[in-house]
Amino acid sequence: MYPDQASNFAPQVDALMTFLILVTVFFTVAITAAVVWFMVKYRRQHADEIGVPIHGDLRLEAAWIVVPSIIALAMFAWGAVVYVDYRHTPADTLDIYVVGKQWMWKIQQPNGKREINELHVPIGRDVKLILASEDVIHDFFVPAFRVKMDVVPGRYNTMWFRPTKAGHYKFFCAQYCGTSHANMIGYVTVMEPPEYAAWLSGSQEDSNPIASGEKLFSEKACVTCHVSNGTGRAPSLNGVFGGTVKLADGSTVTADEAYIRESILAPNAKIVAGYQPLMPSFQGQLSEDQILSLTAYIKSLQSQPVPTTGAGVIPTGKK
Amino acid sequence: MATTPPVSPPSGPQLPKTHYLNATYGIRSWLLTTDHKRIGLLYLATVTFFFFVGGIFATMIRIHLLTPEGYLVTPETYNKLFTMHGVAMIFFFLIPSIPAVLGNFLIPLMIGAKDVAFPKLNLLSYYIYVTGGCFVLYSFSTGGLDTGWTFYTPLSSVYSNSAVTPAVIGIFINGFSSIITGMNFVVTIHTMRAPGLTWFRLPLFVWAQYATSIIFILGTPVIAITLLLAGLERMFHLGFFNPAFGGDPILFQHLFWFYSHPAVYIMILPAMGVVSEIIPTFARKPIFGYAFIAGSSIAIAVIGFVVWAHHMFLTGQSTYSALAFSLLSYLVAIPSAVKVFNWTSTLYKGSISYETPMLYALGFIGLFLIGGLTGLFLACLGTDIHIHDTYFVVAHFHYIMVGGAVMGYVGGLHFWWPKITGKLYPEYLARAAAVILFIGFNLTFFPQFVLGYLGMPRRYHNYPPEFQVLNVMSTAGASILALGYLLPMIYLTWSMRYGRVAGANPWPATGLEWKTASPPPTENFDVTPEVDWEPYDYKNRPDLGLVPPALAPAHGDD
């Protein structure tokens, strides 16, 4: 029943969990069995009967104060050992900056490479995350690593872990932070160190621009706001390319490649009517290849059905 | 109530001719009453209303979570639903439920007094509660609020676009109701006990209410001030909690939990008091370790004030602070364990029967056991790193607050219903409802422990598809649970008019409240009672009409 174990803390937390489960199941079963046994054995035999007047027993009271106290101390001590280890960051860590904002994670690798809702880390290195928030309190939670830490505005918190198993693991925002709290989700990719080094220095190639554009569209979290059915916080992009877009200042613009590029790199330059200027700039975070791929993907949405509300384009009536 | 008692068998018990329900008539005689029993019933009606409101929100939450992408409502609406569910249930149902309904009705009866010490303040306390409730309902109906019942800043004080201000004002006002009620109970218990009713002859329900009242008086001002500060930051941008204004968001959490953790004991202590009354009654023997159960209530109330930062192990607080609060949290578990051991031992060599209140009390032990023991996982620093803010926490506190506090409240209502109304409810239907509640509750909340360990965070309006099966189980359980709550609402209401007449002491139980008629007269007792018996003593109480054990046939060897 335990989730993936992918960090140094996972086996520690799970072992502690197993200990706690064993102790508590033992007490639950023992007390329930006693209650059920007494219920059956001492059930009322006839209507006027009363019980034996027993008022208590000091030795028993002492026993069930002292024994649970000792067990509780053991639980406390073991828990403290794991926690102190977690709160004491070792020297020589790989430092990665994590910024939470409503409602996305912006991550920066030591060499400056940026990611959104993605975190790449190498196996076997002690990784320290330096956590900051732009607005409210968030919480960076990686269940497969058994670690989390609040991301508090006005201060830096840190957390650390050592990934132990390659793979793709979800991370969540665990501190309620407003409307799209449940969409502040991303993936940690744990890689072999050489792969990580290669990933860090280059950008992956992908032959089909539409397919890689679609992948980028979800990796960069565009999809969380630009929802295709028009219910998102940003307009649907279905049918936008080649169409006419109405802007907040009342003017209109034809959606061509230049407009799409500008909207990705300088989103506040032209705001679609009816929407807020919420989108962050992706300047410096996308290679030219990636912008081309995204543009190719958005062009491919031309044939998709345009929603009646939340469309980014003025409906032509033909579709 | 009917003006004439309904027909009952000539040999059976009769309703008294005049009692507190029919002594005076008209809407004014209820709304302006200073009779603690009528005020208790006013509270009963109002907390039931809020339970219903909170229950509707809970129903919508569970339906919404049937599918990973969210089945019913938009994200904004979902966030409002769980916030309003929490606010309605905690501040306007759970906190006033046992203290204000059963406490008001029973404390004067149990100590042989005519009323509480300050009857007019008691009525004022009710109207303060209603006023606070109106502000909160105004917030709910003008768009609702989406901050979570914890009102964490700066989300609540700056970023939320919902109706936070009226809700905060409502909870602020409601706090004074708790403070006045707590003070009233403390003074009543100190000064108005009947002759012979020493502290160690008090029913354990009264001890529990006394401990609860201490928390009311000491804790409630803190939450009132805290929410006031958050409201001022929201309205006037005064910098208390938002770092952009120079405040500290963690300060809010310290202040909030300084009240809201003890508030958990406000909810559970009275329920423990109810269980401590029910178990000796249906085992027909003195409670095991009276002084330890009474003392553990006080210990919980006192230690409960110094554990608050165990809600904050992962806010970045210092490691030493976390160690101290973890240790203290383990300390507060001991008196709770002492109670469970004593209740279990009370059953030993009893004469046990299984009427409805006893089923609730036994159910309480089982659910409180799970709720309490899972608290050890959260107090444990190592495991809390993983399960903090997941569904594990949601499951844990529902086991305490619903499995514990609500089971205690509903069990207490059944236990004292014959005293409150003079009528009996349909026994077998009531037993069925208790079993349905127990099953429905476990099916709803047990899967959430697993969900939490698998990593599902709280307050998610959609979730990864691998969590769906457990969520569907939980929703299925919730529909059984809903049936378990609707049944008592229906048959208890029905019994007020059509139930069999109960008589003064139907169980029979040993407390003073059972020495007067059911329903009691307005002044409670015709003459001031004198107490010359020890609590829960069946052996030396010939007035109960039961046989001492020496004369009863011995138990078999089974």
Overview of the molecule:
- The complex is a heterodimer of chains A (319) and B (558).
- Chain A has 319 residues and is α+β, with helices and mostly antiparallel strands.
- Chain A has 3 domains: 9-42 and 56-87; 94-201, Cupredoxins -  blue copper proteins (Immunoglobulin-like, Sandwich); 209-303, Cytochrome c-like domain (Cytochrome Bc1 Complex, Chain D, domain 2, Orthogonal Bundle).
- Chain A has helices at residues 9-41, 58-87, 193-201, 209-219, 222-225, 257-265, 288-300; strands spanning 94-101, 104-108, 114-116, 118-122, 127-133, 138-142, 147-151, 157-161, 167-173, 186-191, 244-246, 252-254.
- In chain A, a hairpin with a 5-residue loop joins strand 2 and strand 3.
- In chain A, helix 1 packs antiparallel against helix 2 (58-87) and helix 6 crosses helix 7 (288-300).
- The longest helix of chain A is centred in the first third of the chain and has 33 residues, at 9-41.
- The mean pLDDT of chain A is 90.
- By secondary structure, chain B is mainly alpha-helical.
- Chain B has a single domain, classed as Cytochrome c oxidase-like, subunit I domain (Cytochrome C Oxidase, Chain A), CATH 1.20.210.10.
- Helix content of chain B is 64%, strand content 1%.
- Chain B has 15 helices and 2 strands.
- In chain B, strands 1-2 form a two-stranded antiparallel ribbon.
- The model of chain B has no long low-confidence stretch (mean pLDDT 93).
- At the A-B interface, helix 1, helix 2, strand 7 and strand 9 of A face helix 3, helix 5, helix 8, helix 9 and helix 10 of B.
Spatial separation of the terminal alpha carbons of chain B: 48 Å
The helix tally of chain B amounts to 15
Q: Decide which structural class fits the backbone of chain A.
A: alpha+beta
Instruction: Flag low-confidence runs of chain B.
Output: none
What name does the CATH topology of chain B carry? Cytochrome C Oxidase, Chain A
